[in-house]
Design brief:
Elements (H helix, E strand, L loop, with lengths): L12 H14 L2 E2 L2 E9 L7 E8 L2 E8 L3 H6 L4 E7 L4 E6 L4 E6 H15 L5 H6 L8 E4 L2 E6 L2 E9 L3 H21 L7 H12 L2 E10 L11 E10 L2 E2 H16 L1 E2 L2 H5 L4 H8 L8
Parallel strand pairs: 7-14
Antiparallel strand pairs: 1-13, 2-3, 2-12, 3-4, 4-5, 5-6, 6-7, 8-9, 9-10, 10-11, 11-12
Length: about 290
């Protein structure tokens, strides 16, 4: 996906829902919102990425987990990342716990990126990239009950959403998702520009909803001569309360931010492996296509 912050997410949904129900019944619930996300490629049963996003007191804490390769499963755990979305301070803080590093990205930088990226995309030779530069997708978005569809050159977005706990929760989620998409464009350039997803986010938020599934089908140029299309799916499980353990996770993240060494973005990104970059570039959103 022209993902996501690393972005930025179940066939066993019924069983998982039952398990989650037991957990919720046994744990004290807290104010806030939690969203669990998984991202799948084509018909794969194992996700290529997972995330847990916790909303509390105007902040969004995004805990990102890249699925381990077969070699990593034998030798080391996959890399985790923490992203703090802090709209009141107009900033995003990205933390690499393994390297004990953090970098701060101001909202103004993401806004400037959005303007320059849109200008570039609208002049691109590729029809898909030019279409994805926008600015208007409203007429192309088809809405039926709790489903949306947006079709462009060689691409199709299909979105399912559920009612948010409140209109404010829907707005908070949209703000997080929009920022995550632009952050992904900054950290993992390449792929489809984020503007179709931003238009979808706006429409879902206007319906006071939160996405539960996003499918992105891409017909590459190779597909035109006999290749196969790629399908990216993100699945999101929304819970209207935080669990007691979530508060501890937020406290741990706050402690990590406090002790992590602050570096600029270039220094933060320098050691990122080619494999991690490829994984990020191939995932579109939110967390998500």
């Amino acid at each position: 996906m022209f993902m996501p912050a690393r972005l930025p997410w179940c066939p066993l949904a019924c069983g998982l829902a039952l398990v989650l129900g037991v957990v919720v019944a046994e744990a004290e619930e807290q104010d806030g919102l939690r969203v669990e996300s998984e991202v799948f490629v084509d018909d794969d049963k194992e996700p290529i990425a997972k995330s847990l996003t916790l909303f509390r007191n105007g902040l969004a804490w995004d805990f990102l987990e890249r699925s381990a390769t077969s070699a990593e499963k034998d030798e080391a755990a996959a890399t985790d990342e923490i992203v703090l979305h802090d709209p009141a301070r107009e900033r995003v803080v990205v933390v690499d716990p393994d390297r004990n590093l953090k970098t701060q990205i101001d909202s103004l930088r993401l806004e400037r990126l959005s303007v320059s990226l849109a200008s570039w995309a609208r002049k691109a030779d590729d029809r898909l990239v030019r279409w994805a530069g926008g600015p208007d997708f409203g007429a192309g978005i088809k809405e039926q009950k709790s489903q949306l569809e947006l079709v462009g050159p060689r691409v199709r977005y299909a979105v399912e959403f559920t009612a948010a706990p409140s209109a404010e929760a829907a707005r908070e989620y949209r703000r997080f998702a929009d920022t995550a998409m632009l952050l992904k464009a900054l950290l993992h350039p390449g792929g489809i520009p984020p503007f179709p997803r931003l238009a979808i986010n706006r429409r879902v938020s206007a319906a006071d909803g939160i996405p539960t599934a996003v499918t992105l089908e891409i017909d590459s140029k190779v597909a035109m001569v006999g290749g196969q299309s790629q399908v990216l799916r993100s699945v999101h499980k929304v819970h209207p309360r935080l669990l007691a353990g979530d508060l501890q996770r937020i406290e741990d993240a706050e402690a990590r931010i406090a002790v992590a060494e602050a570096v600029d973005l270039a220094a933060f990104m320098e050691p990122v492996s080619a494999a991690a970059t490829a994984a990020g570039s191939g995932t579109d959103s939110t967390a998500a296509p």
